[in-house]
Design brief:
By secondary structure, the protein is mainly β. The chain has five helices and 22 strands.
Length: about 425
Amino acid sequence: MKTTKILKSLSILILTTFLSLNAYSQQNFIKGHVVTLNGDTLHGLIDYRNWDKNPDKIVFVREGKTTPEQYSPLDIKSFKANDEIYVSAVVKSDISSRNISNLGNETNLKTEVDTTFLQIIIQGDKSLYYYKNRLGIENFYIKQNGKYDLLVYSIYKSSKEDKVRVNRRYIGQLTLYFNNALSVQQQLQQADYTRTSLKNLFLTYYNQSSTSPKFQKKTDKGSVEYGIVAGASISSVKFGGQDFIYLTSADIPQSVNPTGGLFLNFVLPRSQGKWSIYNELNYNSFQISTDYNGFYHDIYYTEQINAEFAFSYLSLNNMVRFKYPVKGCFLFINGGFSNGIIIDETNHMTDVGRFRTTESKGLDDIKQHDFGYIGGIGVQYHHFSLDARYKRTGGFSSYVTLSSPVNQYYFLLGYRF
């Protein structure tokens, strides 16, 4: 029990350290550049935030400098970071509700003028720009005669018919914009007001055109990591209940065993590589023994019962993982569920009585499936990782009157291929 308390204290200390570092490490400077109002390109580091809504300012550190500078759309022409280009613009932005339960009956678009950075989706002789405003409403733009034109799309209720109507004026705008592109004209009526659908129209144009786009934003599909883990586990079992006194009254020592497995980590898109779904096929095991001495006063004899249990599991661990860069490495925290099945077992009991010794099963009914909760923290450096976890499961008893929770601590060294 002393070992368990030490491990718990160590885990709390590491977790507190992780959260403290994370709280003071919220900046995320990556390589990028800005283009000044004079057309000069300045290279350096940009505090990239994987913006959901378009930023109205950025923080930039010039190459060779240490002092950060803040720029608004009025200070620079554009900037680039992480395969994303943003251009400064003053545009009309749609602020009409697109929520079916909160629609107005106005057919005219509600707009406001915003000074912001538009994201370039595709750039060339035909370009598409994107802006998600403060209300979370997506707006798309084309550029004509040096001006950014809002592609108009709105939803409203017809006051006469009490029906939901859709204003798809953007179809007409794009029809004129792609006037000489027959292949695009054929797809326009099916085009939705979404990033993917509109981008595909522009790609269709470039596929049949003699020119190529100067830039197009790559689709972030995430990535997949895989590798192996190996280490040791420390397991403890504490029986509880009114029956099976030869188990519930026993003081059971901890079990230390080797463990290992294979992992597949799905890094989520648009998360800067910080969020992922971690999946691991893990081999783990433990063995315990109990000794019970019973004294029967009425007939003056003792009974000795020794029970031995050993189980090997193949477990599937599914966890959500968050990691954050700190001084050349990554700290991570993860949590989720574990499902295991028994692949090998020892279930034996020796009962030494006054007149005879009997051999039998320690428990007649063993639960073959084990479900539990798992969580942990760790550090990753290049291809290597060090991981500390805690897992708690319901254990192997199938009896309602006998609980058998299993508490396990894992210490794992991992390698990512």
